Amino acid sequence: MPDLANLVPVNNRKANNRMNIPITGSRSNGRLSQRLIKALVVISVLAIFFVACTLIFGKRFLALYMVNFTIVPILGKFAPIVALDPGLFTWLDPSFDFSPWEIGAIVGLGDMCMAFLLTHNLDLAYSIPKLGPVLETIEKKSVEILKIQPWIGRMTFIGMVAFVVFPLSGTGAIGGSIFSRLLGLSPWRAFLAISLGGFIGGFAFTGLVVIFGKLVIGFIDPGVAVAGGSVLILAIIWILNKRYRQAVDAKN
């Protein structure tokens, strides 16, 4: 298990860079070039993957992935609830009659792609202006979670999967990529753990959404079910985050 005493984030990374994250201008141009080439290779692989999926599945895939960029950031792994109202997307195109399971799959796919990008380029991401401070904030939150849930550090890989599955703010692929570094996972093991967590969480919460839909659809309008369910989900996420903050404050 990682030494928690050494995981407390510091404001001055130049003085104590425990994660070996590069500071702008602190590395040679050659080392930076290597990181940029690595990032370009990873981005190229993702681009080829998206082009292949688009050629195979057409505009339906692109529309599904737009859900990942617009709705998933708000509802997280509960995003499949929007599929309970068929008319939410079919007004754009009749073929956009997405099922909850399709959106659950795209939630997992989004985590997988983000994990592939970040786990292999986290050092470079920390050196990007404005993005670096955001990642440091997420890192601090990851350290706090590890302190109040030390079992995650003891179980490492399985703990990493559980971290991504749990629907708490900051526990998706971005937080998972940072958290995996704290646990000492290699980029490829971290990628696998985050991908598993993304798909397990995506399909597990899709199952809850489907059960919710079977209970309410037929009694209330689908649009009302989506709106009401979304408000309920946001309330649950808010409560979970509030309880997390309380646990952190009590720990400190």
Provide a brief overview of the structure.
This protein has 252 residues and is mainly alpha-helical. The protein is 70% helix and 0% strand.
Description:
- The chain is 70% helix and 0% strand.
- With 252 residues, it is mainly α.
- The protein has one domain.
- α5 (100-119) runs antiparallel to α11 and α7 crosses α12.
- The longest helix has 30 residues, at 187-216.
- It is globular.
- The two termini are 20 Å apart.
CA radius of gyration is 20 Å
Q: Could you say which overall geometry the principal axes of the C-alpha atoms support?
A: globular
What value does the average pLDDT take?
81
Summing up helix and strand content along with how strands pair, one would put the structural category as mainly alpha
Helix fraction?
over 70%
Number of strands: 0
For the largest beta-sheet, the strand count, sense and barrel status come to:
none
In what range is the share of β-strand residues? under 5%
Helix count equals: 12
Could you give the topology of this structure?
Elements: H1 29-57, H2 59-70, H3 72-75, H4 87-90, H5 100-119, H6 122-126, H7 131-148, H8 151-155, H9 157-165, H10 173-183, H11 187-216, H12 222-251
Helix pairs in contact: 2-5, 5-10, 5-11, 7-10, 7-12, 9-11, 10-11
Which key features would you list for this structure?
about 250 residues, mainly alpha
